[in-house]
Structures are given as structure tokens and as C-alpha cells.
Amino acid sequence: MSELLELRDLTAGYGDLAAVRGVNLVVEPGEVVALFGPNGAGKTTTMLTIAGELPSLGGTVEFLGNATTAPMHRRARQGMALVPEERAIAPGMSTRDNLRLGRGGVEAAVAVFPELGGLLDRAAGLLSGGEQQMLVLARCLALEPKLLLADELSLGLAPLVVDRLMDTVRRAADERGTGVLLVEQQARRALAVADRWYLLRQGEIAASGDRTTSWREFEEAYLPSGQAHDEEITS
Q1: All domains of the chain in start order, with CATH
Q2: pLDDT in tens, 25-64
Q3: Beta strand spans in the chain (E)
Q4: Of 22, 86, 136, 199, which has the fewest CB atoms closer than 10 Å, so is most exposed?
Q5: Beta carbons of 180 and 19 less than 8 angstroms apart
Q6: What distance in Å separates the CA atoms of residue 229 and residue 223, rounded to the nearest whole number?
Q7: How far is residue 94's CA from residue 163's CA, in Å, rounded to a whole number?
Q8: 11: closest CA among 55, 71, 64, 70?
Q9: Segment (H or E) for 51
């Protein structure tokens, strides 16, 4: 069976400036793959290139077994969904109308997060940060995507909300067969739901592992010998 997503020697960036180089990465149906790395490592660049918002500078993005250079909207129609780093909401519109923007239907979105049912008439801009992130994730999952790209789900959110979001991502993989690529700074929480992981450092894959990796092994990969241990790694 072909991989759902495969990056082959991907080089990507802005203009002629490469932010990531020679990245090889695989996501299969029904698995959660975490992509870690310090700030500036190239994680968001990688995600935006996979989504079709940035063109690749070299190598290939293969989706559903075929190399693609299609724009973002076409990849979305083929079953790719993106939760961006900045919450993609229309703050002046109601929660209901924001959910309608996703074309997956309000009912299907509320089934993902029943909490949204009592907030449908409230302006999305008045929701808490956690409720806004639930809105965005529910809108994506209501479409039943084949591949979900989630960039920093946990950013600025309370631990209980982060756990709720991570559990929902894991259930989408287990119950729907959705493949998930998760960029995340909350490393311990992401490792708890991930099947496999990759570590980006200075635009290149520096290490990889799976759910058997211990926290100490991950720390050693993230902060190699001789490197200052004051670099951010969120547990």
C-alpha cells in the first residue's frame, strides 16, 4: 500500500532561500506522526509546503501515492486539511457560520466537539482560545480528511484543553484512519499520542523514533551532547 504522504529529499523555503533541505518523511493512514524542532528549524515551512501554500525548491511531495505540485485548494479537495499555526477564524462571524466555511457541515463539526453546540450563535472572536482551536480542528475533521496537518495545536492553551485536542487527533487516526502530521512544542503530550516522530534541526532531519522512545532518549536527541541545555524543550 502506498504511503499517504511521503516527502522525498524535500527542499523548501522562501524565494531562493532554503529553510529546509533534503527532508525525507512518511505518514501512513491511521497514524499520528509528530514533527519536533526548536524555533526556526523549518517546521512551519515544511507544513506549508506539504499543504501547497509554498512551492518546493527541490525534491517531491507525494500525496496518495502521486507527486503533487497542486495548489492548496486542490490538495484540500483531494483530502488534505490544515490547522495553521495562527487560528484561522473569522472573528466577526458566528461559530455556526465559521463551521459552515469548512463545507463539512455544522452537525458533523459539533459531533467532534459537542462543547461547540452551545456556542453556535456566539461570535467566534468572543470564544476562548481553546474554544477557537476546537472550532478550527472540528471544521477540519468534519470534512473527514485523509491527511490532517496540525501546526502548534497547543499554542497558548491550558493543559486540559491541550489534552482534549490531542485525544481528538488520536481518535481521528484510530477511528477514521486519518493520517496526522503534528507540529508541536508540547513534546511530552505529543509523544503520548504519536506513533512515530521526526526531529528537525537547522532545516534537516536530525533524528527520528517511535512510541518506544523514552523521554530521556528524546531529550538526548533534542539536546545533543555539548549543546547548552537552556534551549527550549517543553515537556
Answers
A1: 1-79+146-235 (3.40.50.300), 86-144 (no CATH)
A2: 999 999 999 999 998 999 999 999 999 999 999 999 999 9
A3: 5-14, 17-27, 32-36, 56-63, 66-67, 80-83, 147-151, 179-183, 196-201, 204-210
A4: 86
A5: no
A6: 7
A7: 26
A8: 55
A9: helix 43-51
